[in-house]
């Protein structure tokens, strides 16, 4: 029985590592050769936050893959960073599952850097604010509307009734 348990744990870990490697390969493929014509299954962009070792693609609003239960989800009111004073809003889980891509956001400090790769460009953002809101299906985004922003939203790791909001401002384009 113990041997079976160890075998199951090893197999489960092996499968998760395989899935993680496949996703990393997709991100690298996107970054190394951004295609002129994208299909629904191609990433729209990639979010990278070096401090927490996050590098993950996200999909267009109309993609079936744009779902918080599968990937990082781009929220409906988002605009890409090539639009002046836009706000790219991304959400993901923060738990311990395979799809908890924002599980380390709590480690971010003001002035930490995030990158968004979109349409052959690398956009650099700096964290300027972070706050909590009640988890009720809506999030009030408090940002300077005369800046181009990136907003990340995730569930609070300790308090299941709260969501954490991280506001970044574009510092170069």
Describe the structure.
The chain is of the alpha+beta class. The chain has one domain: Sortase (Sortase, Chain: A), CATH 2.40.260.10. Helix content is 18%, strand content 32%. It has one helix at residues 2-32, and strands spanning 45-49, 54-58, 73-74, 87-91, 113-118, 121-134, 149-155, 162-172. An 8-stranded mixed sheet has the order 2-1-5-6-8-7-4-3, with helices on one face. 25% of the residues are buried.
C-alpha Rg, in Å? 17 Å
Number of domains: 1
* Tally of DSSP β-strands: 8
Shape: globular
Q: Give the DSSP E fraction (strand runs of 2 or more residues).
A: 25-35%
- At the fourth level of CATH, the homologous superfamily is Sortase
Poorly predicted runs of 5 or more residues = 35-40
CATH architectural category? Beta Barrel
Q: In whole angstroms, how far apart are the ends? A: 57 Å
């Amino acid at each position: 029985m113990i041997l079976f348990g160890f075998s199951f744990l090893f197999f489960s870990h092996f499968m998760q590592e395989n899935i993680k490697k496949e996703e990393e390969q997709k991100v690298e493929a996107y970054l190394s050769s951004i295609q002129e014509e994208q299909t629904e299954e191609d990433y729209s962009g990639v979010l990278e936050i070096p401090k927490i070792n996050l590098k993950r693609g996200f999909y267009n609003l109309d993609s079936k893959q744009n779902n918080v239960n599968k990937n990082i989800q781009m929220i409906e009111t988002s605009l890409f960073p090539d639009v002046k004073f836009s706000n790219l809003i991304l959400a993901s889980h923060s738990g311990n599952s395979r799809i908890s891509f924002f599980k380390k956001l709590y480690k971010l400090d003001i002035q930490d850097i995030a990158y968004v790769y979109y349409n052959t460009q690398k956009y650099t953002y700096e964290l300027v604010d972070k706050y909590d809101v009640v988890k009720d299906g809506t999030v009030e985004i408090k940002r300077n509307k005369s800046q181009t922003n990136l907003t990340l939203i995730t569930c609070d790791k300790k308090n299941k009734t709260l969501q954490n909001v991280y506001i970044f401002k574009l510092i170069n384009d």
